[in-house]
Design goal:
Distance between the termini: 22 Å
Number of domains: 2
Structural class: mainly beta
Largest sheet: 6 strands, antiparallel, barrel
CATH class of the largest domain: Mainly Beta
Order of helices and strands: EEEHEEEEEHEEEEE
Strand content: 35-45%
Strand order of the largest sheet: 1-2-3-6-5-4
Shape: globular
CATH architecture of the largest domain: Beta Barrel
Radius of gyration: 17 Å
CATH topology of the largest domain: Thrombin, subunit H
Number of strands: 13
Number of helices: 2
Helix content: under 10%
């Protein structure tokens, strides 16, 4: 039976999901993705899509109270310059409590993040004799924007010129997680950026980076046919 989202209790794990590849029957975690709109589209980092295209069958996982469910990805597309991509899920219907915000934020802006870090997946894998049965676990982080950046970073692995520097390092495979500025009086959560990585070379100043959505207002992915900022929350 096809997986159906719970739009009554609206658990966050039905809208922020682990994304990866099935290789030799095992799920290999590559990052995090989050659903937007109502046609099964999800946003992740472009470097996550690069990894998905190298080997295996690209999928996302959904969890209910008892099981994990694998959903195939039928389309993948990356932004030509910034570290953002979009994928399309098979099946449906799909809903989301998250919508992309083009609002410009600055230093001291507080954010929340949900993601699937690689370290937690390894921790759980070590507790079982059958690694095929281990799946990622959702974590929560919160922090603030340290500064707004409009230039290339000196660290060559990050593509693009539109970033927020964040004070919290969430870890590998959190790439693709939504950076949320949440109105707790609303069921709609606005993502103003996407987590793309971290700089841990200097233990005295470990920071992370997120690509800004305000710089992507004109991006019209071919698999979407409209700007990503047009996609609204579709929870029922």
């Amino acid at each position: 039976m096809a997986f159906k989202q719970d739009t009554t209790e609206i658990p966050i794990r039905h809208f922020v999901v682990p994304i990866g590849s099935i290789i030799d029957g095992q799920f290999i975690l590559q990052g995090t993705a989050f659903l937007v709109g109502e046609n099964g589209h999800a946003i992740t980092a472009a470097h996550v899509i690069d990894a998905l295209q190298q080997d295996g069958a690209p999928v996302v996982l959904f969890a209910d109270k008892a099981n994990w469910h694998v959903v195939d990805l039928v389309n993948l597309e990356s932004h030509p310059e910034e570290d953002v991509g979009i994928v399309q899920l098979n099946g449906g219907p799909w809903y989301s409590i998250i919508q992309i915000s083009s609002n410009v934020e600055h230093s001291s802006c507080e954010y929340e993040l949900w993601a699937y870090p690689e370290t937690v997946a390894h921790e759980l894998r070590a507790e079982t004799a059958n690694p095929n049965h281990v799946r990622p676990e959702l974590i929560y982080d919160r922090g603030y924007v340290r500064r707004r950046i409009t230039r290339q970073l000196p660290i060559s692995i990050y593509r693009g010129k539109a970033f927020y520097e964040l004070n919290i390092v969430s870890g590998a495979c959190c790439s693709g997680a939504p950076i949320i500025k949440r109105n707790r009086k609303s069921r709609t959560w606005e993502s103003f950026a996407i987590y793309v990585g971290e700089n841990t070379a200097d233990a005295r100043a470990m920071v992370s980076y997120a690509t800004r959505f305000d710089a992507l207002v004109d991006w019209v992915p071919k698999i979407l046919g409209q700007p990503i900022v047009n996609l609204k929350a579709t929870h029922q």
